[in-house]
Amino acid sequence: MKPMLKFIFRFIFFWLVVFFLNRIVFLFSATSFFQEATFSHVLRSLVSGWLLDLSTIGYLLPLPGALFTLSVIFPVRWITRLSNIFVAVFIVIYCMICFGELFLYQEWTTMLTMQALLHFKHPGEVFRTAQPHITFLFFFLSIIFSTGYILFYLKRVAVRISEKELVTGTRQKIILTTLSLTVFAPVNFLMIRGGWSAIPISDSEAYYSSSQVLNDAAVNPLWSLAHNILEYTTHQENNPYMFMAEEDADAGLKKMLAVEKDTTVYFLTTEKPNIVFLILEGFTAYALPNFDGDNYAPFLDSISREGISLTRCYAAAYASDQGIPAILSGYPSTPKISITNQSSKTKNLPSVGRDLKSLGYETGFIFGGQLNYGNIKSYLYNTQVDVVLEHNDFPESVPSGHLGIHDGDMAPLVVSELSKAKQPFLYSWFTISTHSPYDIPVPMKKISSGRENNYMNTIVYSDKAIRDFFSMAKKEAWFSNTLFVLISDHSHFCQRDIGIEDKEYHRIVSFFYGDVIKPEYRGKKIGSITSQLDIAPTLVKQFHLSSEEYDFGKNIMNPYSPSFAYYDYHYGSGFVTDSCFISRKKGEKDVFISSCKDSVVTGLLGRQHEIFLEKSFLDYLSR
To answer: Helix or strand or coil: residue 284?
Structure first.
């Protein structure tokens, strides 16, 4: 009995120390996210999640504990080795999860999730998106810390049974086995569920701060990822957002999207213009004065003032593999799951390109990187895009960065491909240079305070690349008959200190531009609340096609369309109307952030938010 107790206490203490040390490393890596927090407030994150830590240990303990019991009864060397191998494997897994988050947090500001893991189907592409020092840090820290922990475990914690501690008598063996089952097993179960309380432990147990990064630091990453994987698997079949009867949600969404009059303002001068989407990687609206921002992208700002600007447009998504379907298919970012990772479902999505193919349009998608990231290529082919071009389809002589071909070098290549396309065409150019690791081929300058200086430099670079693209495109015969749709795939942290939970973080660049816009609509600003989800149904209406398949979008050019937008982020989602907005954490009904002054209005937005969440996930399950 004494050897077992000694082993259990050493085992628990060992893992608590491991969790503590790795949490310190995480905090050091993320200091730029909580610079205003007091030292004592930061220190709380080291201990706030201790119950989650114990729960995690509760999951890790049963097998080593059982093997320890066996090693006392049956002194066979392979039993001890098996226990040590199990612990060593989980040490390595834990360290890779922890230090993987160092890499992930710099770009997504989120803990490791199943959705992020799915990107590792193509590991080469994942590490190309990481800044080199982050990639080095991941491998270096994973190896060093794993090795150190394993050596310490083998020397100080691992099973070592002396001959006098061996259980030889049958009666002693029965007593030891009985105690293990009747005492240690229930205690271990209580560790896992977080105690006697009626509600099992959740990650909310570790939350203590208004700073999400400090809450994330407190949450045990192994526990968080394991539960996220479990949720992901469960949500393949069940909707976690069932707030009301399905028929009530159906009726609610229809009411939200209802219009007093089904009409459309037609702003095109021709029936079949070419369409070119410029999907701007991670572009914040706050880089353009026309969108209430600062002047980091003067060219884009100037042409936005010559077209139709959607000045209060919001991204429905927070990652490219969600944003592209939101734009081209009017499909919402489904919480916790990216639909592009499931090819069987993307086959059934609507698509503006597929709709226009019925009018004789050729469709294409051009990207300077690799489209296997996020399974975007599968989505494009499933929505019947004719021409899909990525990094490997262009000459090796073209200069490339860490992720692929820089926007400045892609600009002439895109113009060339558009000039080869059969008219009328709908093509998309997905830019790349504003994505981490920001290795643009020009020197970085100090143009912004804070940690986003490099990102803002890439905005300046990409803006010049797009200026060059238009300078070349204007010389081509197809240019005068082309509508350009410039829109961000998602937003990004920028020079302004805006939290990801806030609606303003999700404001994006979105405007129509081109000679095919009627003169009376050039320079028009649409100030109603719009979304990425509204682009596809708006465009198909311009071609007198049905938009019925786009269940979550509005026709922006219908003056009677409602003014609202849904947005999603890593650990929550929000809902915006003209009056105010609310933001909620995933899985919680209580409002996390609200700008509403009236509780009645807050309740109304909450209801609309619930309807949208429930219906979007039900739609995902039905695809």
So the answer is: strand
User: Are 302 and 520 contacting, i.e. CB atoms less than 8 angstroms apart?
Assistant: no
Q: Is residue 339 within 8 Å of residue 621, measured between CB atoms? A: no
**What's the length of the chain?**
623
Rounded to whole angstroms, how far apart are CA atoms 146 and 168? 36
Q: Is 587 left (phi over 0), alpha (psi -120 to 50) or beta?
A: left
Q: What is the value of pTM for the model shown?
A: 0.81
Cα–Cα distance measured from residue 55 to residue 15, given in angstroms and rounded to the nearest whole number: 11
pLDDT single digits (tens) 341-399: 777 788 889 999 999 999 999 999 999 998 877 778 889 998 999 999 999 999 999 99
Whether 215 shows a pLDDT value over 90: the answer reads: no
**Residue 369 CA: distances (Å) to CA of 129, 364, 420:** 10, 15, 21
Quick one: CA dihedral 344, 348, 350, 356, positive or negative?
positive
Residue 350 structure tokens? 């609507």
Task: List the strands of the sheet with 274-280, edge to edge.
Answer: 387-389, 362-367, 425-430, 274-280, 482-488, 510-513, 308-310, 524-526
DSSP, res 400: B
Q: What count of other Cβ atoms lies within 10 Å of the Cβ of residue 476?
A: 13
CB neighbours (10 Å) of residue 522? 16
- Whole-angstrom Cα distance, residue 90 to residue 590? 36
> How many other β-carbons are positioned within 10 Å of the β-carbon of residue 513?
23
Residue type, 377: K
The string of DSSP letters for 434-461 reads TSTT---SS-----SSSTTHHHHHHHHH
The helix, strand and coil proportions of the chain, stated in percent and rounded to the nearest 5, come to: 50, 10, 35
Residue 55 tokens read as 């729960």
Distance CA 284, CA 608 (A): 26
Which run of H or of E encompasses 228? helix 221-234
Q: Return contacts of 577-584, CB within 8 angstroms, 24+ apart.
A: 577/529, 577/605, 577/608, 578/528, 578/529, 580/605, 581/503, 581/605, 582/606, 582/609, 583/501, 583/502, 583/503, 584/609
